[in-house]
Amino acid sequence: NNSQHIRNFCIIAHIDHGKSTLADRFIEKARLVSSRGPVQSQMLDNMDIERERGITIKSQAVKIPYTAADGTEYELNLVDTPGHVDFSYEVSRAISSCEGALLLIDASQGVEAQTLANMYMAIEHNLEIIPVINKIDLPSADIPSCLHQIDHDLGLDPDMAVMVSAKTGEGVDTLFESIVQFIPPPTGNDNSPLKALIFDSQYDSYRGVIIHVRIFEGMLKEGATAQLMHNNAAYEIDEAGVFQMGLVRTGELKAGDVGYFLAGIKNISDIRVGDTVTLASNPAKEPLAGFKDVKPVVFSSIYPVDSNDYEELQQAIDKLKLNDASLVYEKDSSAALGFGFRCGFLGLLHLEVVQERIEREFGLSIVFTSPSVKYIVTMKNGDVLNIDNPLDYPDPMRVDYVEEPFITASIITPATFVGAIIPLCMEKRGVQSGMNYLDEKRVELVYEMPLAEVLFEFYDRLKSVSRGYASFDYQVSGYKRTDLVRMDILVNGEPVDALSQLVFRGTAQARGRTVCEKLSTEIPRQMFKIPIQAAIGGSIIARETINAYRKDVTAKCYGGDISRKRKLLEKQKEGKKRMKMVGNVEIPQQAFLAVLKTD
Ligand code: GTP
Description:
The chain has 14 helices and 33 strands. By secondary structure, it is of the alpha+beta class.
């Protein structure tokens, strides 16, 4: 059986430890791209946003042919995974399609919060783990201490560790040999009924829905009828193949393979990541285990800037959902913004990525409302409500008590920064529940914190007080009672429902002040004076004023140069497209976003 010569593996690591760079070296060694031509770095990071930010958001797969030292030919399927906490769901999906994982550790940083979190995920799925120490070319590399951490913190065998530099390529050959030696081949029988796990999908405007699968049992062939096990929808398979810097048609996929198929799927919602595909002619009895349902933790509404774009926005979100199974949404409407969608996200970075993808991939101009967590509100009459939208918040007089989600945060930091991190956690209403010395120099701080507090710039502040050294990971731990109020924002005396926020009473005033200040700088002057106020119930807690506008943009053109004048007016019109009329005030999209980023 040739599946003996297949190895399916992923690279897992803390953010920035070098996964994408290592993947580049693999691809280069395998001569999938010419090493002489201009090599684009981060070859698996396809999306513009990934390249610009230098982060991986989506897991990507690629097949690499490899001839081992003993002459045996292997087929390596590599899945690159993201490192940021918001995308750990992508990691879990990548892990489910592999037998082994390379656990990458930056030689100058050592083991960090997501190194541990990702390793536990790999262990849970019974993957063979090879520890890899990367960036050994750095002068600050500390290999002995990494080996100690591999043994002591991770409980892995330090003798198995492979030392590499993803930058120079040093050690990569040894790593290839370790992969074929230690990672087991896939099991599974070509003759059993087909069981293919859908681990991803994407929408391509020319080819339709491209479904990414890992074949666990049986064979998938062009011409056969595929059946989706969750709803029994059947589609004829038009094309099947593998990932090799793009799609390469092979006609069939066998047990153990990772690849794709196309089947002229019209109904996008038939496709669910985590579902099992089988064949209508010889269906499997039971589906594969699939994935845990993701629970969104941050909620926000998306509205088109131009209400006529609502239909298009609906289509864009449907298509995006194909490629991002963690996105959940339902219809929503607001007095200020019209019709839109209430969406659930895995974190603020996820929200930003969705926003950028909608704008770039679908060319739509949108506004997001202030993000919120989900609160549990118990009413005096005993009713219990789940509230994530400030617009749904009931009359406070009828509320008995409110609970908010808490997280257990694990922060790993060099001991020297503990003194700066503790006050930050306290300011964010954190309560310390543990402090563990991992070794002489590194400490793990464990905090119980309200999730709502880490949503707003906690991560950035943590990075800045620790000069980038502290790392952070969290899990939602449960709900605790809180003192919640709804803060409304009034622009020119009118409440703008899309700007309302649910906030902790103790920090409401400070927050109200920052929001008003932000808005007063973001909303352009208009022909009249505009008061901006924050209010709780009937009482105003903060206020700013935008003075009336006097100058005309074209005034400085002295009437002479017509074309320049026209250009200026065009520009002003462009700017207007991204404005939303609220009452008689124009609020730019930027203002809605700026409010999210208060610090
Ligand atoms: P995410 O995809 O965002 O999770 O990050 P990543 O783990 O893929 O890290 P990436 O490959 O983007 O590398 C992060 C940074 O480390 C980049 O600036 C790389 O150039 C650098 N880097 C990666 N490997 C090495 C190495 O072996 N040596 C040195 N000196 N730098 C490296």
